[in-house]
């Protein structure tokens, strides 16, 4: 039997393990498990985030994290969590000099701009702007993928977002990950034009309108 519940602090190591096993590449993974743990905690503390755990017969089988309002969640991360994230990131970079150089070359300026914008404040008037949420990560244990775990997590996230007044959801999947793209298409998400990230990797955005 598949069930979904809210992620708790005790579930963070499960999320980190599943992330590392199923999403083994990427800057956050290279920063190490301690940084990943701190990163996933932000979804537990943010007022605009959702963090879900799926269980099959009582055992963790997958998770999903995302935001109901990307502006508010981003502001939360930069204003209330940035020093914890920065401390974890710096500790990782100190023992990874090659990663440090890549950070300086591809990310440092962008992160600094984001902090400056956050310090200037954000408009949280829900009536004045189009609220967009982001499905950040959804990961399912390989042996339970045919049980509908991933679809249940995504559908539950969309239902929560709709109840909170989110008008559109967005996600990104690797442009060459055809199984993932077909998965989201079956759930009525619409693909958009490919985009490249800071490392030059191509991603396919998907959107889901909730109105």
3D architecture notes:
One of its GO terms (molecular function) is acyltransferase activity, transferring groups other than amino-acyl groups. It comes from Nocardiopsis alborubida. It holds the Pfam family Acetyltransf_1. This is GNAT family N-acetyltransferase. Strands 1, 2, 3, 4, 5, 6, 7 and 8 form an 8-stranded mixed β-sheet that branches. Residues about 100-105 and about 110-115 have low confidence and may be disordered. The protein has one domain (about 1-120, about 130-210): 3-Layer(aba) Sandwich (Aminopeptidase). The protein starts with a strand and ends with a strand. With about 210 residues, the protein is an alpha+beta fold. The longest helix is centred in the C-terminal third of the chain and has 15 residues, at about 150-165. The protein is built from 9 helices and 8 strands.
A few lines on this structure:
The protein is an alpha+beta fold and 211 residues long. It has 9 helices and 8 strands.
Secondary structure elements and pairings:
Layout (H helix, E strand, L loop, with lengths): L1 E5 L5 H11 L4 H4 L2 H13 L3 E8 L2 E9 L2 H11 L1 H13 L2 H10 L1 H12 L12 E9 L8 H15 L4 E7 L3 H9 L3 E2 L3 E2 L5 E8 L2
Parallel strand pairs: 4-5
Antiparallel strand pairs: 1-2, 2-3, 3-4, 5-8, 6-8, 7-8
InterPro entries: Acyl_CoA_acyltransferase, GNAT_dom
Protein name: GNAT family N-acetyltransferase
Pfam family, one: Acetyltransf_1
């Amino acid at each position: 039997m598949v069930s979904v519940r809210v992620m708790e602090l005790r579930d963070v190591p499960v999320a980190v393990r599943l992330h590392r096993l199923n999403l083994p590449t990427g800057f956050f993974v290279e920063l190490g498990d301690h940084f990943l743990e701190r990163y996933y905690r932000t979804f537990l503390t943010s007022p605009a985030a959702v963090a879900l755990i799926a269980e099959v017969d009582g055992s963790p089988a997958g998770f999903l994290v995302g935001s109901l309002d990307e502006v508010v969640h981003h502001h939360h991360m930069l204003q209330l969590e940035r020093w914890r994230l920065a401390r974890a990131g710096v500790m990782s970079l100190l023992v990874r000099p090659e990663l440090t150089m890549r950070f300086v070359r591809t990310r440092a300026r962008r992160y600094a701009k984001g902090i400056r914008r956050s310090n200037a404040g954000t408009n949280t008037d829900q009536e004045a702007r189009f609220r967009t949420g982001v499905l950040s990560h959804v990961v399912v244990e390989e042996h339970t993928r045919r049980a509908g775990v991933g679809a249940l997590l995504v559908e539950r996230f969309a239902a929560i977002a709709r109840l909170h007044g989110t008008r559109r959801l967005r996600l990104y999947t690797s442009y060459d990950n055809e199984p993932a793209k077909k998965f989201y298409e079956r759930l009525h998400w619409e693909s958009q034009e490919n985009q490249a990230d800071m490392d030059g990797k191509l991603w396919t955005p998907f959107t889901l309108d909730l109105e």
